[in-house]
Design goal:
281 residues; alpha/beta; 3 domains; binds iron/sulfur cluster
Length: 281
């Protein structure tokens, strides 16, 4: 036996918006009647397939026209108004699991637009949350992922600046500073979600406090790649796995401390499975 000392990072795993969305999904599921999730409820294949066996079926936007008289779940990222219209048109029931934080930001963006403000939205243009936020402006928001992408000559002198919730706080403030430096009057609305923005610093500290790190995340999770890089920088003995079976005994020496952590899309049960496997080694 290796007698490893195993700790799960209490700050890793789903943010509260995703926990809430999964709770809503589980509550709405009943035997024999599927619920369709518009997009994957979380970027984690194992969790998506666990929910699929209970009847939560992921669909794409292109499938929406064909779905009638069913239950459709809107995930934590939210959706633009057109999606609600399409779902309702086909007599479907909406299970709205949009994160309450995202809902509030949608509302603020809508109010800014209605008040005639020029909305600049810092985020990835094809990210579902950004599509939902920009959808509150009737296509009038200017969405950009890098300051260099903005055509400054087309902007009015006065701007209202919002951000996708998962953008880097430093990058967002840098955009604001660059706009001000070029003479724009900026009404900044800090909409970066604090449930994720503090994760890097927390993880760096956690990774530095253990002999070995096991980082659990789905292979598709972009947040997982970024956060694993943070761990690897703080602790060279960091290993990324997508499930507990990928953990190799030769990574550890007897009696070492092992920290288990993960991305914002890693379910708690996957980290617990990893802990069980390590304790059996
Ligand atoms: S706004 Fe924050 S809490 Fe809500 S889903 Fe996004 S990251 Fe999670």
């Amino acid at each position: 036996m290796l007698n490893l000392r195993v700790t799960i990072d209490s700050r890793s795993g789903f943010c509260f918006g995703v926990v809430k969305a999964i709770g809503r999904a589980e509550k709405s599921l009943a035997p024999g009647r599927p619920v369709y999730s518009l997009g994957s409820i979380v970027h984690n294949e194992e969790e998506v397939s666990r929910l699929k066996t209970s009847g939560l079926i992921p669909i794409k936007h292109a499938d929406l026209e064909q779905i009638h008289d069913s239950k459709i779940l809107i995930r934590a990222h939210g959706e633009p108004p057109e999606t609600y219209e399409l779902i309702n048109k086909n007599n479907n029931e909406i299970i709205d699991a949009t994160c309450p934080i995202v809902l509030k930001i949608q509302d603020r963006i809508k109010r800014s637009t209605d008040a005639g403000e020029f909305v600049l939205l810092f985020g990835k243009p094809d990210h579902p949350e950004v599509i939902g936020l920009a959808g509150q402006t009737n296509g009038q928001a200017l969405v950009f992922a890098n300051f260099e992408d903005i055509d400054l000559d087309t902007l009015p002198g006065k701007l209202t600046l919002f951000s996708q919730t998962t953008m880097s706080l430093d990058a967002f403030y840098s955009v604001r500073d660059q706009l001000i430096a070029r003479g724009f009057e900026v009404n900044m609305q800090d909409t970066v979600c604090r449930h994720v923005s503090g994760r890097r610093a927390d993880l760096r500290e956690f990774a530095g406090n253990h002999d070995v790190i096991v980082f659990v995340a789905g292979s598709e999770s972009s947040n997982g790649k970024v956060l694993f890089a943070v761990c690897a920088e703080a602790n060279a003995r960091s290993h990324k796995v997508s499930s507990a079976d990928e953990i190799e005994p030769h990574w550890f020496n007897p009696g070492e401390s092992v920290g288990i952590c993960g991305a914002t899309s890693t379910p708690q049960w996957q980290m617990e499975e990893a802990a069980r496997r390590l304790r059996m080694m």
